[in-house]
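ugh ok fine here u go
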Amino acid sequence: MRFETTLQRPVEASGVGLHSGVPVQIRLLPAPVSTGIVFLRTDLDRFPIPASWRHVARVSYATSLMRQGVLISTTEHLLSVLYSMGIDNAYIEIDNLEVPILDGSGLPFVRLIEQAGIRQYRRKRRYLRIRRPITVEDKGKRISILPAESFRLTCDTDYPAPIGRQSLELDVTPESYSAEIAFARTFGWETDLDQMRNMGLIRGASLENAVCFTPAGVLNPGGLRAPDECCRHKALDLIGDLALLGRPLLGHVIAERAGHAMHAALVARIMQDPSFYEILTFDQLASRVTQALVS
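structure:
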């Protein structure tokens, strides 16, 4: 994609927050070139919170952003969709503190973007290309990123039965994301429900917006949408956290049992050291690829 994009027209959705349980309405609107993705708290005089690594606040069970004490929680699903579908600039009006969970996947947001349409600007899109390998690891978990000429993702997960080990690898494009990742729902275990609710979490969770596992299988009447739905959802979460880089990524990300905190640590490490990356346009990238083929 050579040029920056935004939405053609406003679209909206409403639901509840997964963790807060509060009712919330969001509206996605077009934004000017080089705006990026910006949340606007309409209940607080449209207070702006850019979707940037600089504003990451909490990364335990979801990724939250905060600016001057104003919070936006559970941003990863919506940001994952906007990033993967190639939306560079958008305002997100939101009237409460948490993005609605909808059905627990990215698919409703994909449908919203399809409904809105995509508009291209004349300004050239600028990519963030990784120049040298980076790794963050802790207690048997690891996430790395290697130089590449596309956005490639390898995601390995390992959970107790009945999930087990799962793995996914693909080039992230709007088409592959819509077909292979967007449908995957958030998930958890029945044995953890009481503890999480006592922590003030998952107050809005139900079998309508999350997959719930027991030692014997899945509680949801319809079962899983794919045998490896959990791994695909972790890939969805990972992309949403990588969106906080603020530019489309060129690199191969390899995540091994990583979570939100490790994703955020990788993004921060990249952005705090400019020697890890370069910024270039699609034309500059294409020219380099052509030169490499000729040589």
